[in-house]
Amino acid sequence: NAGVTQTPKFQVLKTGQSMTLQCAQDMNHNSMYWYRQDPGMGLRLIYYSASEGTTDKGEVPNGYNVSRLNKREFSLRLESAAPSQTSVYFCASSVEGTNTGELFFGEGSRLTVL
Amino acid sequence: AQSVAQPEDQVNVAEGNPLTVKCTYSVSGNPYLFWYVQYPNRGLQFLLKYITGDNLVKGSYGFEAEFNKSQTSFHLKKPSALVSDSALYFCAVRDTGFQKLVFGTGTRLLVSP
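Output (structure tokens, whole complex):
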């Protein structure tokens, strides 16, 4: 049972380059999320998708775009990477329509922008 | 907006001693509160939650948390710490309108042998 799978696990980019972080979940969850984790700042929500076909901005969406490709997959794209986007990115999923609030996280993608 | 605060960057405790990791919250309406743990180079894992009911919530790995409405706190506790409990702990609150979570800044727990 894979749960939430993120690729790649590590990536180094130069300023201005673009890349896409991929996320897939096999738990049949409706809701998916992208967070970034920075030292001393905890986790901050970038974008989320309540259900297939919908996406919404979170706390720090600038510089990012997302695509909810289908129910399983939710990708995060950096169109023109900046050093401020150096971070660890986590994808998560949850069951919509409940009040459990339990998120299931991937292992993270560590991105360095030079 | 909903928010949580974790006032301690790090908590040190000796193995076998009780541990407490603090969290206070600010919400409008009823709070939905959570604790997550992150081991090195891993994603976050759910530990426990408070939605309603008993103020003492039991969770995974022997952890529990006490909800205190008058003090707006939701402290994580364990009666006897293990070295393997050493990790980063996050408190979180459910945001209004949708099932997304707002996380605190995290508290690093170090349990010494």
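The two ends of chain A are 36 Å apart (CA to CA).
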